[in-house]
Amino acid sequence: MIVITSNQISEEQVQHIVTEIEKEGLQAHVSKGADRTVIGLIGSVNPKLAEHLRQMKGVENVVKISKSYKLASRDFHPDDTVIDIKGTKIGGGNLVVMGGPCAVESAQQIDEIAQLVKAAGGQVLRGGAFKPRTGPYSFQGVGVEGLIMMAEAGQKHGLLTITEVMTPEYVDICAEYADILQVGTRNMQNFDLLRKLGTCGKPVLLKRGFSATYDEFLNAAEYILAGGNPNVMLCERGIRTFETYTRNTLDLSAIPVLQGLSHLPVISDPSHGTGRRELVEPMSKASVAAGADGLIIEMHTDPDNSMTGDGVQSLFPDQFAALLKDLEKLAPLVGKSFATAKAEELCHGQSACF
User: Fold this and answer.
1) CB of 61 closer than 8 Å to CB of 248
2) Global confidence as pTM
3) What pLDDT digit, counting tens, does each position of 47-91 carry?
4) Cβ distance 205 to 177 under 8 Å?
5) Dihedral angle at the C-alpha atoms of 283, 131, 165, 86, nearest 10 degrees?
């Protein structure tokens, strides 16, 4: 249930409404938009309380939300969420590109790729230190050492960093070194992990499960939001269908659907969504045309010899740079602003960012 207030309500009146809600043992989440403030009620609401709230000063209406994902719903938060990370804004008409290898392999490798991502105009360096693999004998990542390598490369070249976290036990160490924590498709419904991420204080990129419905996806995001972390990004990374030509089927319709259902930024992953290098460029452009707030793209200096074996879906550096040049032209045509972040803006003049 949500309480919709008038655009002239005072801060004192908002706090009074929150107090009345909390008296009944419910949680109140305040969302301040450009035109009005919406207060969400989490818990079982007594009809008498709803009527009492409806009669309070400054309240325009009390509306029951039938969706199970309250905090992720656009009904609760009508305006787009904009996540500001060290000056780089994600959501609200901004286009962000995250680029890098599937996995951190060495300090030299991630440093070289970071330089290329920055030169091409990317804002975020991606790379996995811990890798969830289908087979137990596949390369599993270099671990904490990889986090340190990537943090140093990101700081050196003025890039934010994003890495995948696989278990609740590794959330704190990943949050120490990375700017954004990624939840992979296999962990979308790892509820212990999602609860921990709700308390970590770092932005989270939540990937859609490869067989997840929109409702299941948004309910997974709700776990993080309910834990107190408002900075969640939704990532469409392809779903499993009957088609075998591509690794997955990138669900482009998910982008406008999720933006209609939720206020959270939506990121597209054309690399995993197709699994084929030649499809990454057109599907990146299609994602931006569909309204995506950002892209996460695999790029490797030697993809055919990558340690993960996923090189077939990784762009070469020149392909990555050419794509970002095209996106710079495309973005304004679909109402997006595509601007690179500067190193000094990210570090705020400090000698280190981690």
Assistant:
1) no
2) 0.86
3) 899 899 999 998 998 988 878 898 999 988 889 999 999 999 999
4) no
5) -50
